[in-house]
Each structure stands twice: as C-alpha cells, then as structure tokens.
Amino acid sequence: MTPTEPAARGAAAPTAVRPPLPVKMVIAGGFGVGKTTTVGSISEIRPLTTEAAITEVAAGVDDLSHTPHKTTTTVAMDFGCITIDSTLKLYLFGTPGQDRFGFMWDDLVEGALGGLVIVDTRRLDDCYAAVDYFEHKGIPFAVAVNAFDGRVEHALDEVRWALDIAEQVPVFTYDARERGSVRDALLVVLELALARAQG
Amino acid sequence: MAAGDTPVGEEARPGRPDDPVGRAPAVRPFLVTAGRVAGARSGPPIPVETQVVTTAAGVTALDGLSFEAHDIVALCRQPQSLAEIAAKLRLHLNVVRVLAEDLRSEGHLSVYVPNADLAQDISVLRRVIDGLRTIPDSRGALRDTD
Ligand SMILES: Nc1nc2c(ncn2[C@@H]2O[C@H](COP(=O)(O)OP(=O)(O)O)[C@@H](O)[C@H]2O)c(=O)[nH]1
Ligand SMILES: [Mg+2]
C-alpha cells in the first residue's frame, strides 16, 4: 500500500465518490492572536468551528475505565481547507495553545505536516506552550509574528530570544488577513518539513 | 440536540462557501453513543481529517436511519472529514468518531484513515507545496502591487 492509497476500513465497497487524501497543518497560539483570521484568509470554505471534549490533564486519563467524575472541558477549534487537487486536500486547524489542552493537542497534531505558531508581540507569553509542544514532538514549525496594523512591538531577534527558539526555527512577520502572506507562512513550514523528510 | 435541526446534504456541496456553523452546544456525548466515547477504547483515535464517505448500501438504507445516524450518512454522500461532520452537525468530535465507527461496521459508511507516515512523504509534501504556490495573493485586497 502506498501512502497515497489509504485503506478503506470495512467490508462494504466504497461508493463511486473517492475522497481525497487528507493532510493537515496546525495553527497554534493564544487567544486573539489571529488563528481564525489566518485560516479564513486562505481556506476555500469559511472556517468551521467544532468543539472537542477534552479531559483535563490534571484529572489523569484512564483509557480503560469510565470514570463518571472525570473532569472534561470543551475547547473550540476552527478549521478550513484547501483543495490541492482532486486527490489531495489540506486541512488547517487552528487551536488554542494553552498547556491544559495537551490532551486534545495530541489527538489533533498526530500526523500533521507541520505547525505554525502565531505570536502577538504584545503578549509573547501566550505562545510558549505551543513552541514547547512542537519542539517536544519534533514537528516542523515556524513562528509567525502577526503584525497587527503593521506594528510589531519587539524586533524579531528579541522574539526569538524571549521564546528561546532554536536557530533553525524560522521567525518572521506576516499579516493574518493577507492570503499571500498566509500562503507564504505555510510554505515556510512545508519547506522545513520537506527538508526534514529528505534529510 | 442540534443535529436533528440541521439540514444536511446541501451544505456538503464542494466549491461553495459553507454557512457559518456555530459552536457545538455543551452536549452530552453519552446520550448519543450509548455510553461509549472514542478514546475510552484501545488504540489511538482516528485522526480528525479522516475522510468519511457514504456507501451505496448507506444511500439505500438512508430512509430507515434516524437522528444522528441519518444525518451523518446523508452528509457523507459527499466526502467529509470527521471534523467537518462534527462542525456541520454540531456534534462533538468523539461522538462522531463513535457513530462513524458504528455506521462503518453496519456497512453504511467507508472510513478512510490516512496513513500515519504521510507527514514524512516527500511526494505528498512536494504536491502540497506546489499546490500552495499556485494560490494567488488576495483578490480585491487594497493593494496594487504583485
Ligand atoms: N488589525 C488587525 N486585526 C487582526 C489581525 N489579525 C487578526 N485580527 C483581529 O483580531 C481579532 C482576533 O483574531 P482571531 O483570528 O479571531 O484570533 P484567534 O483567537 O487566534 O482565532 C479579530 O477581531 C481579528 O479581526 C491583523 O493582522 N490586524
Ligand atoms: Mg479563533
């Protein structure tokens, strides 16, 4: 089986409609940094929102039991998509970057081509968790500073220093409202992913 | 539950912007899935981008299905990701995972789980890169250069 031919589970023959191969990228960052705006700028559908039930990490996850008092929270994630061609579709998932959403992150990020961490330089703290997460998981990622109204409060090397970002991780400014700017930001991540896959 | 109120099928048409879909209400997953939630079973959950397509048997069975099962089978006459099903029918992702698995085992749906190592597949990455490069800058944006 080649990677481009996912197996259909189940005995029933599929209908004539064959779905595209789905791939995904994750757009992460704190609240209000421009995740939904980013997705919406390039998605061919208006971003959809779904809520995933997550188990609070602190509650301790036991896969084998149904503990009625397990603490669950819902977290919203916005997503959109780009049809690359009839056989390949890219999904973009925007998700909050806070620590306590770790459970959902694993669920979401598994198999992602890469991640884009969005930063608002007025609130740098909000993106630590996302940076740590991608680093820890070894997922190719870049840090994109959303230049609200063209203003960036910190120089890029200050951002890199403040977030303690490794040298090989790209840090750049972009505009979440500009499709071309979002496209180029995604391409930076994908080029990293390609270089890593080739390496 | 909102799912029963949501018209399905029409919004699945590709190439047309979907209507905005609000956040799912704080639903009670246990009601819909008879106490089971995905993730409470062994193995990793199927990915959110997993594609789901109604089978010929599912189309035939559609009239006999009700509630969420009906809505999912109707919606997936056009391929949908798990995430799209959840958003459009306002169901929680884990509820959709369980229902999709049930409907698959009943032969109403085909569930295409993407291969886990796609993310490192050079040809897939190249195709995504080449595809993205063809996307033009925003049309109608207030800028007149490139
Ligand atoms: N001026 C300006 N506003 C932006 C920009 N990006 C996002 N916004 C606004 O900031 C707010 C939060 O953006 P949103 O994409 O919803 O953030 P999210 O919480 O990360 O999804 C919204 O009102 C956006 O319209 C930007 O680049 N410039
Ligand atoms: Mg948002």
UniProtKB/TrEMBL annotation, chain A:
<dbReference type="InterPro" id="IPR052705">
    <property type="entry name" value="Gliding_Motility_GTPase"/>
</dbReference>
<dbReference type="InterPro" id="IPR004130">
    <property type="entry name" value="Gpn"/>
</dbReference>
<dbReference type="GO" id="GO:0005525">
    <property type="term" value="F:GTP binding"/>
</dbReference>
<keyword id="KW-0547">Nucleotide-binding</keyword>
<protein>
    <recommendedName>
        <fullName>ATP-binding protein</fullName>
    </recommendedName>
</protein>
<dbReference type="InterPro" id="IPR027417">
    <property type="entry name" value="P-loop_NTPase"/>
</dbReference>
<keyword id="KW-0378">Hydrolase</keyword>
<comment type="similarity">
    <text>Belongs to the GPN-loop GTPase family.</text>
</comment>
<dbReference type="Pfam" id="PF03029">
    <property type="entry name" value="ATP_bind_1"/>
</dbReference>
<keyword id="KW-0342">GTP-binding</keyword>
<dbReference type="GO" id="GO:0016787">
    <property type="term" value="F:hydrolase activity"/>
</dbReference>
UniProtKB/TrEMBL annotation, chain B:
<protein>
    <recommendedName>
        <fullName>DUF742 domain-containing protein</fullName>
    </recommendedName>
</protein>
<dbReference type="Pfam" id="PF05331">
    <property type="entry name" value="DUF742"/>
</dbReference>
<dbReference type="InterPro" id="IPR007995">
    <property type="entry name" value="DUF742"/>
</dbReference>
<feature type="compositionally biased region" description="Basic and acidic residues">
    <location>
        <begin position="10"/>
        <end position="21"/>
    </location>
</feature>
<feature type="region of interest" description="Disordered">
    <location>
        <begin position="1"/>
        <end position="25"/>
    </location>
</feature>
